[in-house]
Design a protein that fits this description.
The complex is a heterodimer of chains A (334) and B (523). With 334 residues, chain A is mainly alpha-helical. Chain A has 16 helices and 2 strands. In chain A, a hairpin with a 2-residue loop joins β1 and β2. In chain A, α3 runs parallel beside α15 and α5 packs antiparallel against α6. Helices cover 34% and strands 24% of the residues of chain B. Chain B contains 19 helices and 22 strands. In chain B, strands 6-9-10-3-11-12 form a 6-stranded mixed β-sheet, sandwiched between helices. In chain B, strands 18-19-20-15-21-22 form a 6-stranded mixed β-sheet, sandwiched between helices. In chain B, α15 crosses α16. Chain B is globular. The two termini of chain B are 30 Å apart. Classes of the chains: A mainly alpha (334), B alpha/beta (523). The interface between A and B is large, with 39 and 47 residues.
């Protein structure tokens, strides 16, 4: 504490301006978008980002990641992490496809079963972390590996079962010009935002993640809050799994790990400004992180740039974003 | 204040015959105090007197070993802070319990958000908060929707008070509430305390600053070494009485004799115009064989000076001369290399690796000097390990095994381990920051002996301390910090009053003839 900061009492009213409330990641989003447009103009003469169908496609490709990342944001706000999502996605895709067997009448049963599975995984994760005090990284890594083992043991890789045509509407249909998938993502983001900003549970989750001790002293049921956050995370993985299988038409045990949904959901959440230490951030930041990944992917794919270069750029972006946040918060603290 | 009234009123909260021991220290010894409604009750005592322990027991954070707690006349068990909170006991620690990334309103109503079916109504939340702030007359200063991280310390304290009021607290405990406030802010706080008192709260006020205590309290309780010295009506005592009660007769009891001229050698450490964000115009000389005491109020730059010298938060400007050579100390590694040792204020977070064996803690500094690959050489490990028992004897650590974890030791023994760490490194300049904070009297005396013993072997010591008796009892010269500068230098044997005058900026040392205001403040 410097002498300076102690002696000055400024007027701090009305500090809460509109501009201050925009997550910092949106500046990155603008930079990436502008960078993409420039690249587009010079290399592809404006054919990529000017094309509405490609723009939509960026979002559609981001839907599965976006949904999982919303759930990941919940657990990370609680100072936890969920590395089991990729295998929960695989399990959902395989199970739902196997149960449906192309029969529309069996869709509700399949959905009910995978939702039950999601709740179970989330519950187990939450209990391991809050009751047995297993570090969240290890606990969810463990449950993820168990689900992977069960999947690989029971099923060969490759397509399994099939989903009815009607179910595929979720993946390919649209309401007017807007694809259902984008509506789905939008709905999940809005629900996530509502829960975090407008419910007691959301407020308590920020409390638990911000400082567990303060949460306890305020009478929060910290274990329950964190367990619910894990159930939400697993459920978003289930929704993502259902969406993926509706696009693919059939389940495959490798869809989750192939999409690297575990690490990418963590990465986009972090880019979105949610602190790994919990208590700070939100879904709007996360979704910007997801869109940034989507733009980079699309532009580079369209330009035929080497995939490995794409990885380098993503990695650099994660580090740069997080470094800039921590530099900023250090400056604020000083 | 009518005496009859005090006798008749039921105490809001009362403790009877409270005992509490921590490893190596009897923190509270048979303490009984009554706190009446509509009264500001100050609890004073030196560091380690047991004030904080007593407060934590009333707030449900600690369980007493024995004794009873009565709330509004009924015996209660306080097993958990939430239980105390629900009864109506609120406590504001020096470290605030606020979430920096949440708004004022979200913090005040955390866990008690106004809601229907789990859905919060933010406008109502903010309105309720605004109402509480208005009640306290601070609505103009604090916006319910401001993030706590944007508020000053004083404003955060107001938020804590507002939270207590919103909880319908009947007892409000404040631990050193003025420690980091400016005088304007202190006045504001006192106005607020008067408001709370008028509302019938029992306000318990822990402080080191006696002038403030006399300005605001109705009753005063003095603790010393965990025992109750007495509870007095403030109008019945003078500052001198209270100082005497706090310090007792043991003031110069346990200090080793000061150094004599033959002990002092050449200047080993010299700072010329040292400056950084927290400090300016720092000039000092430290001679071989002497103890240079650094005093000052909290926030005056005492600790920052120690950290700058050791390179933890280095000087940006100016020169440091060590053993006649101008060097740059930009990090603790350089400082250790240059044979400096640093015994920190906060043993637990800075001085010790709590989960590591005592042995490894002792050897930490010397190992940091060894080549990173030297562990391959078995002799390296053996020689350093063989130093351990000798070191332990030197500082008188009392343990059955050096393989035990450092966290199992009492505060006094932990501090000895930190000391031995630097002894092992062969340091020639020692910097102590609060060397005896929170440790018991016996261990204190032992550590004072060790520090003096160091100077006899030719080591130069710079000792930062907030305990004036310690500064006075130990120092061969005293530098008093004031607002990030050296306010003045005082000779050995200066009085507490002399130091306080310089520390509060009323006098700049060197001419210490005028009789001092009997403040007696320690912090």
């Amino acid at each position: 504490m410097s002498v300076d900061t102690m002696t000055q009492v400024e007027d701090k009213r009305n500090k809460n301006s509109f501009w201050k409330n925009i997550p910092q990641v949106y500046y990155f989003l603008v930079v990436v978008l502008v960078g993409g447009l420039i690249l587009d103009q010079f290399v592809a003469s404006g054919n990529i980002l000017a094309n509405p169908s490609i723009l939509f496609n960026i979002l559609v490709r981001s839907v599965a990641l976006g949904i999982v990342a919303v759930g990941q944001t919940f657990v990370m706000l609680g100072a936890s992490i969920d590395l089991s999502v990729a295998y929960t996605i695989s399990f959902t895709a395989v199970m739902s496809s196997l149960i449906m067997q192309g029969d529309p009448a069996r869709v509700p049963l399949a959905i009910a079963i995978v939702i039950g599975f999601g709740i179970l995984v989330g519950l187990i994760n939450g209990m391991l972390i809050t009751k047995l005090n297993v570090n969240s990284f290890i606990a969810t890594l463990g449950t993820g590996l168990i689900v992977k083992g069960v999947l690989n043991g029971m099923f060969s890789s490759g397509s399994l079962g099939s989903v009815p045509k009607g179910f595929q509407t979720l993946g390919y249909g649209s309401l007017g010009p807007i694809p259902y998938s984008i509506i789905l993502l939008f709905a999940i983001v809005v629900i996530g935002w509502f829960i975090l900003s407008w419910t007691k549970f959301g407020s308590h989750l920020y409390g638990v993640g911000g400082d567990l001790l303060i949460g306890r002293l305020s009478g929060l049921r910290t274990s329950r809050v964190l367990t619910i956050a894990h159930i939400i995370s697993s459920l978003t993985a289930v929704v993502a799994g259902l969406f993926i299988v509706s696009r693919l038409g059939a389940g495959n045990p490798t869809v989750g790990p192939d999409g690297v949904y575990d690490l990418e959901s963590v990465a986009t959440t972090v880019i979105g400004g949610t602190a790994l230490s919990g208590g700070r951030g939100g879904v709007f930041g996360t979704i910007a992180g997801v869109v940034i990944f989507g733009i980079i992917d699309t532009v580079f794919n369209q330009l035929g740039v080497d995939t490995y270069l794409k990885m380098v750029i993503r990695g650099a972006l994660i580090i740069f974003a997080v470094a800039s946040y921590s530099v900023r918060s250090k400056r604020e603290a000083a | 204040m009518a005496n009859e009234q005090i006798k008749e009123a039921t105490p809001m909260i009362e403790v009877r015959n409270i005992n509490k021991a921590f490893p190596g220290v009897q923190a509270l010894d048979n303490v009984s105090v009554k706190f009446l409604p509509g009264e500001v009750h100050a609890v004073v005592g030196e560091n380690g007197a047991g004030k904080s322990t007593l407060m934590k027991i009333m707030a449900g954070a600690y369980k007493p070993d024995s004794g009873e707690i009565f709330f509004q006349g009924e015996e209660v068990q306080m097993n958990h802070p939430v239980q105390a909170q629900n009864l109506g006991v609120a406590i504001i620690y020096q470290e605030f319990n606020l979430l920096p990334e949440r708004t004022v309103a979200q913090n005040i109503y955390l866990g008690r958000e106004p809601s229907k079916f789990g859905v919060i109504n933010p406008p109502q939340l903010n309105k309720q908060t605004e109402d509480v702030l208005k009640e306290l007359g601070v609505a103009k200063m604090i916006n319910p929707t401001a993030l706590v991280s944007t508020l000053s310390v004083a404003e955060q304290q107001l938020v804590e008070i507002a939270k207590a009021v919103s909880l319908n607290a009947k007892v409000l405990i404040m631990d050193e509430p003025t420690a980091s406030l400016t005088s304007t802010e202190v006045n504001l706080l006192f106005d607020l305390v008067a408001t709370l008192k008028a509302r019938g709260l029992a306000v318990i006020f822990i402080s080191h600053r006696l002038s403030e205590v006399f300005g605001i309290a109705d009753m005063i309780t003095v603790l010393k070494d965990g025992q109750l010295v007495g509870t007095k009506n403030i109008s019945d005592v003078t500052t001198e009485d209270v100082v005497y009660m706090m310090v007792g007769r043991t003031l110069d009891h346990y200090f080793p004799p000061l150094g004599v001229d033959e002990d002092f050698g050449e200047v080993v450490l010299r700072v010329v115009n040292g400056e950084n964000d927290f400090l300016s115009n720092i000039n000092l000389d430290l001679r071989k064989g002497e103890i240079l005491g650094i005093a000052g109020l909290q926030g005056s730059g005492r600790t920052e000076l120690a950290q700058a010298l050791f390179g933890a938060v280095p000087f940006d400007e100016g020169e440091i001369e060590l053993m006649g050579k101008t060097i740059a100390i930009k990090n603790p590694y350089t400082a250790i290399q240059r044979k400096m040792g640093f015994v920190t204020e906060d043993r637990k977070s800075e001085g010790l690796a709590l989960m590591q064996p005592i042995r490894d803690n002792m050897l930490l500094a010397i190992r940091s000097l060894q080549n990173l690959l030297s562990f391959i050489h078995p002799d390296g490990i053996k020689t350093s390990r063989s130093m351990v028992p000798e070191l332990g004897q030197q500082v008188d650590v009392r343990v059955d095994s050096y393989g035990k974890q450092a966290q199992d030791l009492s505060g006094g023994n932990q501090q000895k381990v930190v000391l031995s760490k630097w002894l092992a490194s062969g340091a020639e300049v020692f910097i102590f920051d609060e060397p005896t904070r929170g440790i018991d009297v016996e261990a204190k005396a032992r550590i004072h002996d060790i520090i003096r013993g160091l100077t006899k072997s030719g080591v130069a010591v710079l000792m930062v301390s907030s305990e004036l008796p310690e500064v006075i009892g130990m120092s061969d010269r005293i530098l008093v910090m004031h607002e990030g500068k050296i306010g003045g230098e005082l000779p050995a044997g200066s009085s507490e009053a002399d130091i306080m005058l310089v520390a509060t900026g009323q006098q700049n040392g060197n001419n210490k003839n005028k009789t001092a205001a009997k403040d007696g403040g320690i912090q």
